[in-house]
UniProtKB/TrEMBL annotation:
Organism annotation: Winogradskyella ouciana
Gene designation: asnB
Binding annotation for ATP: 280, 353-354
InterPro entries assigned: Asn_synth_AEB (IPR006426), Asn_synthase (IPR001962), ASN_synthetase/amidase (IPR051786), AsnB_N (IPR033738), GATase_2_dom (IPR017932), Ntn_hydrolases_N (IPR029055), Rossmann-like_a/b/a_fold (IPR014729)
Gene3D superfamilies noted in UniProt: Glutamine Phosphoribosylpyrophosphate, subunit 1, domain 1, HUPs
Positions of L-glutamine binding: 94
Protein name: asparagine synthase (glutamine-hydrolyzing)
């Protein structure tokens, strides 16, 4: 887990050093800067495997030079194969395995890797560059390209100086609380999409992006439930086991939910030593899961640490939010995530998490909403449009957000997309061009819930969940590994009959049945609270002055395409207690802090 940097722009050495220092939290153990011809390499190392300096980067092999961020979990198997082919190794790192593997197989090495990664390999003989990002988009990869000049980095901050703001990206952010790939907040800077590689030929100034992995059309297995449960269990055990490889202390995040409980339970069985587990709690019982997590920890015999989060803790972390989330990012659960990693770093450097379980095993509350409202969506649109009249909705007591959406959207797919997008609620002019990059979900499955899960994996998981976890963990130099994001688990889950995962409102059925083998059902069968914070209440009370100061007229009037009057109405309604508009207010607050941090006025 590190930070990578590469450019052919002839920056002075001190400029490159300053760029790396701006994201030094990603790799505090070693900073490496080197040049090969016109290419400058930079690397920030967080040492996890083979702590010796021999594994520092940039790393070289014959005419190849590499900068690499992440982990190749099956590197030992790949290494054995390469040794049998006659290659010799000087380190015990996965970095060297990746480099020599590319030397032998070229881009086909991607098909052999199981990991989270973003890397670039320069070939000095051919004057070409090969870069790739992992299948699920766990690790970030930003690049600037103007037709001849290239700059690559793990974060956008070192690349922002002198760039123009991408005003369309502001609209995307206000629509879905993040800037979705391949776009970024700056013009001419892009994200390499997950499951893609990029080839640059510096001789001809050609850049090409190609896909090497994606979700595929679903083929449902004809398999008995107990056999599927056994196969999934074995797959999860292996996914956990290979993520326990580390030369530094390792632990596991443990909330009150099913996913982290299952990961931690499996880890406690396959780990040769007692595992450390960590959770965040809140004084408000509506948000607090710490007591359930402590029960889990006692049952699986982990060494557990609980940290209670207060409004003061959140206020202190707001500057950290803009420091490490260097694009506007409005998932408020990033705040407790930062606090969790801050505490975790005091004990371990690597932590397992349950991220990804909800996507593959139908765990989010909106899945229930889709099922409840499916009959409404199937009513012919003209009738639904008539029924969407606000007066009629109030008369029949059907004025919920999801019901209004189900009545007013033209198709099932529109209803699914509404889950992840506000459809221009805060905008003067709607702009949803970004959705064209995520339309694959329509063709991979005919199953309503699977369509929603696939869009969740492609749009939300990469741009929200993975960003949240990467930046929050890297802020404190912690590496987070998520067994549910093992591509084998994702692929396997999609082949299971839907009723194995979701049955009569019982979400994550198969995971719950697996967890019963470790923890009694009466302990974990409690309402899920989510990793949220009571930010809506805090902005009316403890943080009110902070919000009103940030959301002043000068700021609001300079936000491109923002419907200022509509937003101010929402703000007044929320602050007076007439309604709740927490997500929309938080978006603008985060954006104001981003403007202040990066000087875009």
């Amino acid at each position: 887990m590190c930070g990578i940097y590469l450019t052919n722009i002839p920056f002075e050495d001190n400029v490159v050093k300053e760029k790396l220092e701006s994201i030094s939290f990603r790799g505090p153990d070693f900073t490496g800067i080197d040049k090969v011809g016109d290419i400058t390499f930079g690397h920030l190392r967080l040492a996890i495997l083979d702590l010796d300096t021999r594994s520092n980067q940039p790393m070289f092999y014959e005419d190849l030079a590499l900068v690499f961020n992440g982990e190749i979990y099956n590197y030992k198997d790949i290494k054995i194969e390469l040794i049998e082919l006659g290659y010799e190794f000087k380190t015990e790192s996965d970095t060297e395995v990746l480099l020599i593997g590319f030397k032998h197989w070229g881009k086909s090495v991607l098909d052999k890797t199981n990991g989270m990664f973003a890397f670039s390999i320069y070939n000095s003989t051919t004057n070409t560059l090969f870069s790739a990002r992992d299948r699920m988009g766990v690790k970030p990869f930003y690049y600037y390209w103007n037709g001849s000049e290239l700059e690559i980095c793990s974060q956008i901050r070192p690349m922002l100086k002198g760039k123009q703001i991408n005003e369309e990206a502001i609209s995307m952010f206000l629509d879905c609380m993040f800037v979705p790939s391949p776009y970024t907040i700056a013009k001419d800077i892009y994200k390499l999409p997950p499951g893609c590689y990029m080839e640059v030929n510096f001789n001809t100034n050609e850049l090409r992006v190609e896909e090497y992995w994606n979700l595929k059309p679903v083929k449902i297995k004809d398999i008995p439930y107990e056999e599927a449960k056994k196969e999934l269990h074995e797959l999860l055990k292996d996914a956990v086991k290979i993520r326990l490889q580390s030369d530094v202390p390792i632990g596991s995040f443990l909330s009150g939910g099913i996913d982290s409980a299952l990961v931690s339970s499996i880890a406690s069985k396959v780990s040769p030593t007692q595992i450390n587990t960590f959770s965040i709690g809140f004084k408000d019982p509506k948000y607090d899961e710490s007591k359930i997590a402590e029960q889990y920890a006692e049952i699986i015999n982990s060494n557990h640490t609980t940290t209670i989060c207060s409004p003061d803790d959140i206020l202190e972390l707001i500057p950290k939010l803009t420091e490490v989330y260097d694009e506007p990012f409005a998932d408020s659960s990033a705040l407790p995530s930062l606090l969790l990693n801050k505490v975790t770093k005091q004990y371990v450097t690597v932590a397992l998490s349950g991220d990804g379980g909800d996507e593959s095993f139908i765990g989010y509350p909106y899945f229930d909403s889709l099922v409840r409202n499916k009959k409404i969506i199937d009513i012919p649109y003209p009738i639904r449009k008539f029924l969407s009249n606000p007066t009629l909705l109030k008369l029949f007591g059907m004025n919920s957000h999801r019901v209004r959406n189900a009545l007013s959207t033209k198709t099932r797919n529109d209803f699914i997309e509404n889950i992840f997008s506000r459809k221009g609620l805060l905008l003067k002019k709607k702009n949803q061009d970004y959705m064209k990059h995520y339309q694959g979900y329509k063709k991979w499955s005919d199953i309503f819930l699977q369509k929603a899960a696939d869009l969740n994996i492609k749009l939300w998981l990469e741009n929200d969940s993975n960003v949240k976890v990467d930046r929050a963990s890297m802020a404190y130099s912690v590496e987070v590994r998520s067994p549910f994001l093992d591509y084998r688990v994702v692929e396997y889950a999609r082949t299971l009959p839907m009723h194995f995962r979701y049955e009569k409102g019982r979400q994550k059925k198969i995971l719950r049945d697996l967890l019963k083998e470790y923890i009694p059902e009466e302990v974990f069968n409690q309402p899920k609270r989510g990793f949220a914070v009571p930010i809506g209440n805090w902005m009316r009370k403890e943080l009110k002055d902070e919000f009103l100061t940030a959301l002043n007229d000068d700021f609001l009037n300079k936000v491109p395409n923002l419907n200022v009057e509509k937003f101010k109405t929402l703000l007044d309604e929320h602050m007076s207690g007439k309604a709740k508009h927490t997500p929309n207010i938080w978006k603008l607050f985060v954006l104001s802090k981003w403007y202040d941090e990066f000087g875009f006025n």
